[in-house]
Amino acid sequence: MRILMVDDTKSVHAFVAMLFSESGHELTHLYSGNEALTYLANEGKNVYDLILMDWEMPGLSGVETIKELRSMKVEIPILMITTRKGDGDMETAFKNGASAYLLKPFTKEALLQKIFEITMKAA
């Protein structure tokens, strides 16, 4: 599985990389929404199987990035990974194109369960 991770926090990248280190999944690291938009426009819109997207980042937020990706016809499932748990946050993420929602901090089991759910929906 090819996974694109978009998060401005290097420790989150390190944790996810550790989780996938023995799985054989290919993990690409990006650190902002703007970087993700440029990267996917150049690499190809649907070359990944999954995007892990943080909400709160400098520049474009994760929600804004997802909205732009969907307008570019990027159809890759997107798992929003965030600390945001306020009223309406999950609804906002889904309304703008997120496929699933996971609160930080998360466990390996919770992340893998969400990935399984997303890939089962996409199949």
Descriptive keywords:
single chain, 123 residues, alpha/beta, 5-stranded parallel beta sheet, 5 strands
Strands ordered across the widest β-sheet = 2-1-3-4-5
Structural class: alpha/beta
* Percentage of β-strand residues: 15-25%
One letter per element, helices H and strands E, the order comes to EHEHEHEHEH
Helix content: 40-55%
Radius of gyration: 13 Å
Unreliable stretches: none
Please, could you describe this protein's structure?
The protein is globular. It has helices at 10-20, 33-43, 62-71, 89-95, 108-122, and strands spanning 2-6, 26-30, 50-54, 78-82, 100-103. It has a five-stranded parallel β-sheet, sandwiched between helices. It has five helices and five strands, in the order E-H-E-H-E-H-E-H-E-H. Helix 1 (10-20) links the parallel strand 1 (2-6) and strand 2. The mean pLDDT is 93. The protein is of the alpha/beta class.
Question: What would a concise description of this structure say?
Answer:
The protein is α/β, with parallel strands linked by helices and 123 residues long.
